[in-house]
Amino acid sequence: QVQLVESGGGLVQPGGSLRLSCLASGFTFSSSRMSWVRQAPGKGLEWVSVISSGATSTSYAASVEGRFTISRDDAKNTLYLQMNSLKPEDTAVYYCLKPGGQRGQGTQVTVSS
């Protein structure tokens, strides 16, 4: 069955960096457009970034543009999100999302001094 397993979250100080990973299985990852979304405490889901199949195009929310980079390794069925210059407002549970809306259990990112 489809599985999405996010990892790499943690506690980081403002200005720091984290790299999130999402290991996918149970579907054809290489031909799937993949996204990252996040949910801050008490708020709804917010779209963060998307990458096309083949990594030919990417797009970012204005709030993370220039700080976050989405990438993929189709040989490893893994999606990544490199997050730099983190801010307290980036604190959220981060999920990877496959076409159809299925997401994993998420990984917590906390940005605090």
Write the layout of secondary structure elements.
Layout: E1 3-7, E2 10-12, E3 18-25, E4 34-39, E5 45-51, E6 58-60, E7 68-73, E8 78-83, E9 92-97, E10 107-111
Parallel strand pairs: 2-10
Antiparallel strand pairs: 1-3, 3-8, 4-5, 4-9, 5-6, 7-8, 9-10
Keywords:
4-stranded antiparallel beta sheet, 113 residues, 6-stranded mixed beta sheet, 10 strands
H and E string: EEEEEEEEEE
Largest sheet, order of strands side by side?
2-10-9-4-5-6
* Helical content (DSSP H or I, runs of 4+): under 10%
Gyration radius (Cα, Å) is 13 Å
Which structural class best describes the helix and strand composition? mainly beta
Q: Which blocks of ≥5 consecutive residues have pLDDT under 50?
A: none
**How many strand segments?**
10
Overall geometry comes to globular
What gap, in angstroms, lies between the N and C termini? 40 Å
Q: How is the main sheet built?
A: 6 strands, mixed
Strand content: over 45%
Tally the helices: what do you get? 0
What is the average of the pLDDT values?
Answer: 97
